[in-house]
């Protein structure tokens, strides 16, 4: 069984169905991509997995247990960690203290008095934000803040890592380094589930990709299969290679990434 | 059976008036996310305006109604939305609460200033007219109330479901940002809901005045009835709010009919709304964590430990001199200031660090005072008892709200403060009705601190120790956690923090500090009674704490001193008594957006002076002073190091300081 199983999940807000019968998995040692156009329901899926949003229907299974009714903090204690698309850094704390708080929450009262500096400094080094350690978290660039959220999340030793658009705001070199870090994390046994718009990154590092459109999973598979899937092309571009004479008006980087 | 029917029917009429008021509250809250604690106070003010029009100016009733409900109230609502509460909905809940509490206090002051206390009567509509239904006499006023409620319900339904702007109002409940994207005008929607909301507050107030009388406080407290009713609909659903209001009205009416007219139980009648509120809060489902970081919180700089100790020592020395110099009756005033300052320290922890609001902090001081007064020969152990009992009561208040958000906690505390003020403190096991309890001075290791001067100095010492303890806590893991929870509850949740118990603990700790202050206060006074711990006092404590700075212990010290001076100023110029409330209330409205308050401005001035003057001084005195010594003298108790003061770095230079100023500014 996979580490995480999202089973037939439906989320409705009033009359709008944000997620419709989504079923997918993420497993240890793998990087799984969750892609789709804006408003496809990717972040809502993350909220359902972490417990911030109760699904209207369906189940979330984690380590072979039904965690659908579990509160947010309990899932986190069992190793579900995430970053946020709209940043949720602790703005009035320093970057270092952001990571330290995570460490202290994870370790409980015992960690409050222990000397854990080395761990925290190592984490800051690992994601490459050591230079910002003393800055207030609300004063650093967006890309750096995303890395901070990753470092903070890693401080709580997650088994399942949910990353919501982690690379936006990073430049090319930083994105490359970030991709390598993800591969490392997966190699260490972590299950990484990532919502991402940078198709080079997604196609480069993911073992499996699920495509969401209007709340529904329209395709799942390895990057190569996803790239050539006509349904995916239609969702992203409004047409596929099969369709004739359709106009190209979508995000060009996505087009190139998906079709190249 | 006949009387049951009669009481139910009568309850329906009061419930109808509550429904009118509550629907206004729900309308403003849902569309702008600003919970207007001053809703009842607006009703009160406008009832006075209506009285003024009809009784003093001789305007015909119908014209006065049209003027108040159609012109004055909507104009006030528009004005308040435009210039006071606009944008508050996106900020922290605590800021919106403080601002509207400021409005509440300011409006009471304004009413007292414009219409000084004297007996005023506002007769019911068509007074004397009525009909007999069975054995029950129904007055025309009651019938009009019911008709008005039905009219409001139908009117709101049509507005929200059949008009364009109504659809926009409903949309702004779900997502104001999205509404803007789709071409809606959230500002117009907000202005309209506040205009209607305040108008409904006025109508409710005018209809209820013959029942609760034209009184500054009674009408203001109707907000508790309103939000108790609205909670049934989770502060969102109008139909459920109407149902809640009717249920509350009937419950109150039945209480009038069936509760004994004397004894302890009889005192429960005025607090039915508060009890109703707690009952609903307990039954409410778990609230979802809201994603969306609260922005724009700037924390006052944290002083280094060395500086804190230095400032504490200076304060103790100054207090020692002052206490031994001033007249004997003024010594006690310093003790009162220390009490207030300690209660405000409890708010530094709860509001300044934790981002939660309590409208009952002085009530917890009352619990501490009560516990202390019950002890014979109180010693330090007894003082600890006072703090522990207050902390326990605080935990009891926070427990039912465990699963809900900060707004519900704040609303519950106000209901709790009124409950304690009107019932518990007046009960026979407490201070007794209009009674007082004697409290002995504190003894330490068998030595009784009998002299006023020594006792007051001990209180100042207690303040200093508490303040230092708070600063140590703020520096450590707990302090970081508090700030983290305030900045992003959802991130804390996804990192594995169970915030529910943490919040109860925080609230209990804060109540305990207030209880400790209350115990010391009882010893200072010698006799304490229920009149010392009125719920209104808690509102003033909160406002002055925020005005002077709820994020720093310096703010607590300044705020405590100011609150001690307030009654003295009022006594010296009684004609301006109401004006003081106006100044405090509207001062909080102006300053409430910055919880760092005046204290932080002081720090900034001190640092500015330090940065401008110190370099020059340094050059001149370089040979005389060690490096950094010139600056330390000029900065007033605060060091620039924000959140990274792990170690005291003497003479860190102007670099980090200047950076912090930039950020704070």
Percent in helix of chain A: 25-40%
The CATH class label of the largest domain in chain B is Mainly Alpha
Architecture of the largest domain in chain B, CATH level 2? Orthogonal Bundle
Give start-end ranges of low-pLDDT stretches of chain B.
625-665
Give the strand tally of chain B: 6
- CATH-defined topology of the largest domain in chain B: ABC transporter involved in vitamin B12 uptake, BtuC
Query: Which sheet architecture does the biggest sheet of chain B show?
Result: 2 strands, antiparallel
CATH homology superfamily of the domain at 1-32 and 41-76 and 200-260 in chain A: P-loop containing nucleotide triphosphate hydrolases
β-strand percent of chain A reads 15-25%
Q: Could you give a short account of the major beta sheet of chain A? A: 6 strands, mixed
Query: Per CATH, which architecture of the domain at 1-32 and 41-76 and 200-260 in chain A?
Result: 3-Layer(aba) Sandwich
**Total discrete domains of chain B:** 3
Protein name (chain A): Branched-chain amino acid transport ATP-binding protein LivG
Keywords (chain A): ATP-binding, Nucleotide-binding, Transport
InterPro entries (chain A): AAA+_ATPase (IPR003593), ABC_AA/LPS_Transport (IPR051120), ABC_transporter-like_ATP-bd (IPR003439), BCA_ABC_TP_C (IPR032823), P-loop_NTPase (IPR027417)
GO molecular function (chain A): ATP binding; ATP hydrolysis activity
């Amino acid at each position: 069984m996979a580490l995480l199983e999202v089973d037939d999940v439906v989320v409705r807000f009033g009359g709008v169905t944000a997620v419709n019968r989504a079923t997918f998995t993420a497993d240890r040692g793998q990087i799984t991509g969750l892609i789709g156009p804006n408003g496809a329901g990717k972040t809502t899926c993350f909220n359902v997995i972490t417990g911030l949003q109760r699904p209207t229907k369906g189940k979330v299974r984690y380590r072979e247990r039904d965690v659908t009714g579990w509160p947010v903090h309990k899932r986190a204690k069992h190793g579900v960690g995430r970053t946020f698309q709209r940043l949720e850094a602790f703005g009035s704390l320093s970057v270092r203290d952001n990571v330290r708080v995570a460490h202290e929450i994870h370790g409980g009262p015992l960690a409050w008095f222990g000397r854990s500096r080395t761990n925290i400094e190592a984490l800051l080094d690992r994601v490459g934000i050591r230079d910002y350690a003393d800055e207030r978290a609300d004063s650093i660039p967006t890309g750096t803040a995303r890395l901070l959220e990753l470092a903070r999340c890693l401080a709580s030793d997650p088994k399942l890592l949910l990353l919501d658009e982690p690379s936006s705001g990073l430049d090319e070199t930083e994105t490359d380094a970030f991709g390598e870090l993800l591969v490392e994390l997966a190699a260490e046994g972590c299950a990484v589930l990532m919502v991402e718009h940078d198709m080079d990154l997604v196609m480069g590092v993911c073992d499996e990709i699920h495509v969401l459109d209007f709340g529904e999973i329209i395709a799942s598979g390895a990057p190569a299969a996803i790239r050539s899937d006509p349904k995916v092309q239609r969702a992203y571009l409004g047409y596929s290679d099969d369709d004739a004479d359709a106009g190209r008006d979508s995000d060009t980087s996505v087009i190139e990434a998906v079709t190249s | 059976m006949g009387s049951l029917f009669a009481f139910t029917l009568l309850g329906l009429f009061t419930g109808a008036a509550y429904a009118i008021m509550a629907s206004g509250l729900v309308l403003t809250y849902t569309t702008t996310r600003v919970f207007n604690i001053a809703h009842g106070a607006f009703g009160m003010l406008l009832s006075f305006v209506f009285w003024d029009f009809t009784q003093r100016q001789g305007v015909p009733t119908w014209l006065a109604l049209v003027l108040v409900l159609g012109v004055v109230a909507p104009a006030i609502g528009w004005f308040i939305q435009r210039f006071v509460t606009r944008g508050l909905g996106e900020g922290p809940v605590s800021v919106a609460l403080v601002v509207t509490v400021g409005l509440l206090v300011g409006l009471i002051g304004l009413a007292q200033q414009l219409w000084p206390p004297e007996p005023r009567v506002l007769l019911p509509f068509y007074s004397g007219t009525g009909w007999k239904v069975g054995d029950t006499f129904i007055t025309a006023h009651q019938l009009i109330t019911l008709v008005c409620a039905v009219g409001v319900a139908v009117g709101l339904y049509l507005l929200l479901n059949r008009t364009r702007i109504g659809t926009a109002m409903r949309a702004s409940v779900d997502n104001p940002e999205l509404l803007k994207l789709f071409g809606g005008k959230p500002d117009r929607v907000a202005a309209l809901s506040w205009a209607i909301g305040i108008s409904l507050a006025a109508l409710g107030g005018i209809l209820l005045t013959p029942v609760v009388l034209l009184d500054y406080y009674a009408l203001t407290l109707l907000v508790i009835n309103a939000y108790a009713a609205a909670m049934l609909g989770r502060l969102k659903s109008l139909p459920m709010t109407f149902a809640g209001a009717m249920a509350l009205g009937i419950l109150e009416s039945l209480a009038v009919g069936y509760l004994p007219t004397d004894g302890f139980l009889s005192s429960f009648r005025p607090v039915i709304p508060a009890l109703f509120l707690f009952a609903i809060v307990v039954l409410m489902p778990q609230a979802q964590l809201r994603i969306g970081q609260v922005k724009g919180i700037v924390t006052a700089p944290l002083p280094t430990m060395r500086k804190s100790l230095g400032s504490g020592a200076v304060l103790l020395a100054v207090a020692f001199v002052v206490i031994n110099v001033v007249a004997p009756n003024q010594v006690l005033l310093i003790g009162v200031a220390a009490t207030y300052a300690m209660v405000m320290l409890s708010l530094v922890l709860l509001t300044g660090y934790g981002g939660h609001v309590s409208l009952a902090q002085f009530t917890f001081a009352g619990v501490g005072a009560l516990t202390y007064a019950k002890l014979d020969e109180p010693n330090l152990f007894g003082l600890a008892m006072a703090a522990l009992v207050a902390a326990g009561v605080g935990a009891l208040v926070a427990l039912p709200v465990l699963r809900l958000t900060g707004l519900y906690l704040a609303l519950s505390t106000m209901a709790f403060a009124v409950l304690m003020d009107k019932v518990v403190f007046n009960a026979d096991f407490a201070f007794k009705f209009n009674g007082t309890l004697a409290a002995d001075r504190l003894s330490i290791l068998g030595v009784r601190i009998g002299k006023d001067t020594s006792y007051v100095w001990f209180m100042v010492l207690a303040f200093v120790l508490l303040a230092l303890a708070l600063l140590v806590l703020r520096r450590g893991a707990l302090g970081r956690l508090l700030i983290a929870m305030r900045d992003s509850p959802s991130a804390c949740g996804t990192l594995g923090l169970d915030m529910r118990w943490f919040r109860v603990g925080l609230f209990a700790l804060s109540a305990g500090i207030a209880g400790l202050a209350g115990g010391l206060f009882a010893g200072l006074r010698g006799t304490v009674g229920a009149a010392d711990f009125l719920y209104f006092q808690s509102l003033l404590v909160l406002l002055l704490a925020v005005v002077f700075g709820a994020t720093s212990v310096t703010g607590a010290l300044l705020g405590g001193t100011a609150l001690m001076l307030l009654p003295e100023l009022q006594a010296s110029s009684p004609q301006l008594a109401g004006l003081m409330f106006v100044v405090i209330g509207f001062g909080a409205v102006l300053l409430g957006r910055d919880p760092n308050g005046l204290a932080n401005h002081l720090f900034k001035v001190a640092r500015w002076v330090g940065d401008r003057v110190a370099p020059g001084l340094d050059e001149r005195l370089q040979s005389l002073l060690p490096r950094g010594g010139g600056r330390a003298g000029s900065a007033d108790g605060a060091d620039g190091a924000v959140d990274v003061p792990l170690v005291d770095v003497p003479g860190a230079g102007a670099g980090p300081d200047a950076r912090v100023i930039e950020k704070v500014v």
